[in-house]
Amino acid sequence: MGTSFTVRACANIALVKYWGKRDAALNLPAAGSLSLALAALVTETTVAFDQRLGADLVELDGGPAAGAALGRVTKFLDLVRDRAGITTRARVSSANRFPTASGLASSASGFAALAVAGARAAGLELAPRELSLLARRGSGSAARSIFGGFVRMHAGDHDEAAYAEPVTSSLLDRVRMVIAIVGGGVPKTHGSRDAMEHCAATSPLYQAWLDLVPKDLATAEAALATRDLAALGELAEANALAMHAAAIASRPSIIYWRPATLALLAAVRMLRDNGRAAWATMDAGPHVKVLTTIEDADHVARALSAVEGVTATTISEPGGPAYVVERG
Ligand code: DP6
Questions:
Q1: In terms of residue numbers, what domain contains 154?
Q2: Which residue is closest in CA terms to ligand 1's atom 4?
Q3: Residue 164 within any structural domain of the chain
Q4: Residue 77 and residue 289: Cα distance in Å, rounded?
Q5: Is this model's pTM higher than 0.90 or not?
């Protein structure tokens, strides 16, 4: 059996969302995006190539993977094998170290950890940018999870141009993110991959969304450069609402929000009216993530916990880059 590599990668939350593709086969995003890595949401993945295996053996969160989940991992490992010039099958074990029963799934941390562990186990020495390009083929948001802190994803107009890279900002020392989990009979939501495709194909607001993203990226980057948290937060909340507006206008509609999601948005607004740093963002689910400061994080988490329908809150620090924790 080849050397096994165990890698940890953090999930990330986009402040300027990725929502739509230019090319589904290469998984090229239609526009850029910008995210914050979260230390509280970590995936740990071990990969070893083993000559004795006739097929990839994949375990996800303690159980054997099958069907579409297995297919997606094997397809990704095929890219790694092609690149390394090997045909050996792999043993993969991956687990999310997310707050218990959080209802958060992350293809971002999952494919970032798989890219780094898979590449190393296959004997490839890839630079971070190449790892980001590779991770993107698994999941667009995974390209960002190779790096820590604030991360900018480039739309790129061809395969090698669509990678992520870190954006330095002294704001990183000030920020926290509070994750409010909305529970209680949430129906199975529409996965982001299918949902963005459906939105692009049917939403009359999709083109407006695409026209908006470059402007929002410029505003977000200016806010990071000038250490203007309020400007960054306002932009992030507005951008998330624009993405959801485009999704809601899809035909048939995609609505991720539950009553508690709206109650959380109102609570965040009230926190701001009371002078707290708090700006909301939402992804392909009902949960609300709130950008705040170290000083305000506890207050914000308490206020969000009190909202009806919220089952848990977690305060997260910014996360670091994907890294190898063990080789065996
Ligand atoms: C709403 O990265 O999961 O979280 O590339 O098809 O795997 P695929 O999509 P994915 O989409 C993430 C969508 C989002 C916004 C974001 O993270 O930027």
A1: 5-170
A2: 283
A3: yes
A4: 32
A5: yes
- Predicted local distance difference test score (pLDDT) of residue 104: 83
Write the CATH number for 293: 3.30.70.890
**CA 211 – ligand 1 centroid, Å:** 18
pLDDT tens digit string along 33-80?
Answer: 999 999 999 999 999 999 999 999 999 999 999 999 999 999 999 999
Q: Report whether 128 contacts 321 (CB < 8 A).
A: yes
Name which of 81, 91, 96, 90 is nearest 9 in CA terms.
Answer: 96
AA identity, residue 213: V
Q: Which atom of ligand 1 is nearest to the CA of 284?
A: 1
Which is it for strands 57-60 and 90-97: parallel, antiparallel or unpaired?
A: parallel
Binding-site residues, ligand 1, Cβ < 6 A = 14, 17-19, 27, 33, 107, 139-141, 192-193, 283-284
Which of 35, 100, 42, 111 lies closest to 72 in space, CA to CA?
A: 111
Give the tens place of pLDDT for each residue, 160-179: 999 999 999 999 999 999 99
CATH number of the domain that residue 99 is part of: 3.30.230.10
Question: Residue 42 C-alpha to ligand 1 middle, in angstroms?
Answer: 17
Q: Based on the fold, state whether residues 69 and 162 are members of the same structural domain.
A: yes
For the CA atoms of 100, 12, 72, 126, what is the dihedral angle to 10 degrees?
-130
CA-CA distances (angstroms) from residue 46 to 49, 55, 79, 190? 10, 16, 17, 29
Q: Which of residues 170, 199, 219 is at a domain's end?
A: 170
Q: Has residue 264 been placed in a domain?
A: yes
Structural domain count of the chain = 2
